[in-house]
Design a protein that fits this description.
Layout: H1 4-18, E1 25-27, E2 33-36, E3 43-45, E4 48-50, H2 52-61, H3 64-76, E5 86-87, E6 100-101, E7 114-124, E8 130-139, E9 142-147, H4 153-164, E10 170-175, H5 178-192, E11 198-202, E12 205-213, E13 216-222, H6 231-238, H7 249-255, E14 260-262, H8 274-278, E15 283-285, H9 286-316, H10 326-337, E16 345-346, H11 349-356, E17 365-366, E18 373-379, H12 382-386, E19 391-404, E20 415-423, E21 433-436, E22 439-442, E23 445-452, H13 453-461, E24 465-478, H14 483-493, H15 498-508, H16 511-515, E25 522-527, E26 537-542, E27 548-553, H17 563-583, E28 588-592, E29 595-598, E30 614-616, E31 623-624
Parallel strand pairs: 7-10, 10-13
Antiparallel strand pairs: 1-2, 1-5, 2-3, 3-4, 6-16, 7-8, 8-9, 11-12, 12-13, 14-15, 17-28, 18-29, 18-30, 18-31, 19-24, 20-23, 20-24, 21-22, 25-27, 26-27, 28-29
Helix pairs in contact: 6-9, 14-15
């Protein structure tokens, strides 16, 4: 049995660590009140001070597992100790940690800037290194193509542009795949010319680079992060006037840019159709073809972004040049048009870290490796459908149960919980995910994990799971939090206008990912010398003679998302999938996040054009696999 005085001291440390309250006051028997100082590791009882060293000694006195379990129960359910501890907390004596919320946007800046597009062409050198051999820039009616293997000459063109547009304070240049490729050549060019380099790095790469040339700020953005698809596919879906061209890279690598001669065979032109190949001249000058190819890429991307930009401005009064990524754009639209005040909380760090453990991806499973005749179904907008379900809002209260799920009233269990799971052996399609050695498994056996409450309830209903709820975070549930957003963009997705349809589809599937975005816990710095402080260093990218990019851990990061909502959405999606799988265990062949293959037709009640309904991939409802074909 833990001594009650010692328990108070340990409890304060635990509560400070969990960030529940900054200050609490307890009344304790005849000995009076125990006042908890808001500073961690310092608890004052009458005139005696309890230090961090005292805490360490007490922690070692008890078994950690038993101590934590008892503290969790006491931390959440103080009433269980009402005979030993009397809670004395008038409202005036409790100072809660300030709760923060995702704020609606009243309006965004209407001020646009000059913008354009840029494309860089590279090839492999004899040493295997990617080297530049051409690039192009288009701003409004200005177009310039440069054939050169001198990366520093890129700066000459940028200086030329800033002299032309010297009345501008800022220029934004979009490159399609800046983050993972072109960024390194931009950085190298700027480094050699001694211009400033500010970089923004994320898990997707270098998503933004800024510099200043001739007192004009230049921002390099990645259009792929706004429209994540191949340029050729985007041009077709937007139906722009200028489509992406074709270029025989293998011929250039073999014979050089000076090649002149017969038109190479069709296999030398990636992604070209026979009709498009036949339209090419029988004799080609590779230099001229390269210029035409670069120019078509620039014009195609410029026309796409012009349409995209106009649609976003007209519908939502948002300037595209202010957006870095598509999830940021979707998030901005939602905050501006749909979000209410004090609805979606910005979680505290400890809470965010726990709930993120419940954020699992989708499943992809093969149940029968062979199928002669199959019916293939796709879900109409799976994740947007899940976004219309009840979602967690506000800030949670921490709850401890240590009870089996069937012992807890259903209304008392909405949120995210750490649970002991026992899945019976022999279950054909286990429905609860677990992480194991870097893999996502759907397995039988026993383990402990964090889950969304509704997924736990759904698993328990199958009769295959024994689930004991330990501790967790209880939220308020809100119907329709994202429904209006989903319904508007789903409706636009059905329009015949190719631009509106393409943009609606992009935005519809991007919001939930932004809500689940990981906190940015690092920052990157470019330097031309080695004299940089190495504290909190995480990574170094050596650019040789051009300099180094240092990435540091950021201990003061801020949380700007809500992983609870994103985790709930992915959980609802898995629930949808596994409910169908368990109904069709005798015929399921394969499934992934939003599609199913069965060896018999599905009930027509699931079919339709509505959100979350299934549609047939093939018109005749039948799809014949090769008899001996295996797929995994």
């Amino acid at each position: 049995m833990i001594n009650i005085t010692e328990l108070h001291s340990l409890l304060k440390y635990y509560m400070a660590k969990r960030q529940v309250f900054n200050t609490l006051k307890y009344g304790k028997g005849e000995k009076g009140k125990l006042r908890f100082n808001p500073r961690p590791f310092n608890v004052v009882y009458e005139d005696d001070s309890f230090s961090y060293q005292d805490f360490l000694e007490l922690r070692n006195k008890y078994k950690q597992k038993d101590l934590i379990k008892e503290l969790e129960v006491i931390n959440i359910n103080i009433k269980r100790l009402k005979d030993e501890i009397k809670l004395n907390t008038p409202k005036s004596s409790i100072h809660k940690a300030p709760y923060r919320y995702i704020k609606p946007i009243q309006d965004t800046s209407n001020k646009d800037v000059l913008w354009g597009v840029m494309d860089i062409e590279t090839k492999k050198s004899e040493s295997g290194e990617e080297v530049v051999y051409a690039w192009g820039i288009k701003i409004d009616t200005f177009e310039k193509i440069t054939i050169s293997d001198d990366v520093e000459a890129i700066i000459t063109d940028l200086e030329y542009i800033t002299n032309i547009y010297n009345q501008e304070r800022k220029i934004v240049l979009f490159l399609h795949n800046l983050a993972k490729f072109d960024s390194f050549f931009i950085i190298k060019a700027l480094s050699k010319s001694n211009y400033s380099i500010d970089i923004l790095k994320s898990s997707q790469g270098f998503i933004n680079i800024k510099t200043n040339i001739n007192n004009v700020s230049i921002s390099f953005n990645d259009s792929f992060l706004l429209i994540p698809a191949a340029l050729r596919d985007i041009a077709k879906s937007f139906r722009v006037k200028t489509q992406k061209g074709f270029f025989p890279y293998d011929i250039m690598n073999k014979y050089g840019i000076e090649y002149e001669g017969e038109k190479p065979e069709i296999h030398n032109f990636p992604n070209i159709s026979k009709e498009e190949y036949d339209a090419l001249p029988e004799k080609i000058i590779l230099m001229d073809l390269l210029k035409e190819y670069l120019l078509s890429d620039l014009r195609s991307l410029y026309e796409i972004l012009t349409m995209f930009k106009a649609e976003i401005k007209e519908e939502y009064n948002i300037i595209l040049t202010q957006m870095i990524t598509l999830p940021q754009l979707a998030f901005t639209i939602w905050r501006k048009k749909y979000l209410d005040w004090s609805t979606v909380g910005l979680l505290q760090r400890a809470t965010e870290e726990d709930i993120r453990k419940s954020y699992y991806g989708g499943a992809a499973e093969v149940y029968r490796p062979r199928c002669e005749i199959g019916w293939i179904y796709d879900v109409n907008s799976m994740y947007p459908y899940a976004m219309t379900k009840p979602l967690p809002i506000g800030h949670p209260s921490i709850k401890a149960y240590y009870k089996y799920i069937n012992e807890i009233p259903d209304g008392d269990l909405f949120g995210f919980y750490k649970a002991e799971i026992n899945c019976q052996k022999g279950v054909y399609a286990p429905i609860l995910p677990r992480r194991y050695e870097g893999h996502l498994l759907f397995a039988t056996g026993k383990w402990v994990g964090w889950y969304f409450s509704e997924e736990l309830k759904n698993a328990f209903k199958t009769g295959c799971y024994e689930i004991k709820i330990l501790i967790g975070y209880k939220f308020k549930a809100k119907e329709g939090l994202l429904t209006n957003f989903v319904e508007e963009f789903y409706k636009k997705k059905k329009t015949t206008d190719p631009v509106k349809r393409s943009i609606a589809k992009l935005i519809l599937n991007s919001l939930y990912g932004r809500l689940g975005m990981k906190p940015i816990t690092e920052y990157s710095v470019f330097t031309r010398d080695d004299g940089i402080s190495m504290g909190n260093l995480k990574d170094v990218i050596d650019l040789g003679e051009y300099g180094n990019i240092y990435t540091f851990n950021n201990e003061n990061y801020a949380i700007k998302s809500n992983v609870a909502i994103a985790s709930a959405i992915t959980a609802y999606s898995r629930m949808y999938a596994f409910n169908i799988i368990n109904e069709y265990t005798d015929s399921i062949v394969y499934h992934d996040t939003d599609s199913f293959v069965l060896n018999k037709p599905i009930d027509k009640k699931y079919l339709g054009n509505g959100l979350g309904q299934l549609k047939n991939v093939v018109e005749d409802e039948n799809y014949t696999f090769d008899k001996d074909e295996e797929y995994f």
